[in-house]
Amino acid sequence: MKPTLTSRLSTAGVLLAILGLPDAAPAQYRLPVLVSSIKADSLHDAAVALAMTPNRWRDAARLHRRSAELRAADDQLGYRCLTEAAALAYARLDRSAARADMARAAGHALARGDLRTAALAYLDAAWIAQEQKNPRQVWEWGHRAEMLAASPLLGQSDRAAILRRISRAPEAMQMAMRKEP
Fold first, then answer.
1. How buried is residue 41: exposed, middle or buried, by Cβ count under 10 Å (0-12/13-18/19+)?
2. Which of 16, 31, 72, 85 could form a disulfide with 61 if both were Cys (CB 3.0 to 4.6 A apart)?
3. pLDDT in tens, 107-123
């Protein structure tokens, strides 16, 4: 029996439909990322607007944190949102929130593979911990920055920038970084 043109097209259509199924599945997974990104951008824009009014800094920091949570690890705006949340918390004299935001920002930079930015953010978190007289946190965040500075993946200029920042830290902070509490 000789296949007809109709049966060939029918077989080809079924084959294409079967082969096309795996392509449809990843498309379904892209939609939530797109929706999350749009929502994250909207939250970021609202946070920027709220930050213009000092009595709304707490709300702006909260929106920045939520925006960062919705972003993928490779989205650099997540780091920026967390550092802005930290700056707003710091300005409101909420040192604990500022320290936590900077530590999360460092983790976000680290997830992107940006070792220099992560180390500098860890040093900012250590600096805030020093202001709070919390030697355990100073050691923890400072030690992480020192480990990143020692990474063979860093260039000499990045390493020097981190070490220069450590050398400019207050003496008490440097001492807390040297010994584990």
1. middle
2. 85
3. 999 999 999 999 999 99
Residues 44, 67 contacting (CB under 8 angstroms): yes
Which residue type occupies 44?
H
Count of other CB atoms within 10 angstroms of residue 122? 28
Percent of the chain's residues with pLDDT above 70? 79
SS3 assignment, position 2 = coil
Helix intervals (H) in 51-94: 57-70, 76-91
SS3 of residue 29 by DSSP? helix
Residue 111's Cβ-side half-sphere holds a number of Cα atoms within 13 Å equal to 16
Query: Which stretches of the chain are DSSP H helices?
Result: 5-50, 57-70, 76-91, 95-112, 115-131, 135-149, 156-167, 171-178
What is the mean pLDDT of the segment spanning 48-57? 90
**Which residues neighbour 132 within 8 Å (Cβ) at sequence distance 6 or greater?**
95, 96, 99
How confident is residue 131, by pLDDT bands cut at 50, 70 and 90?
very high
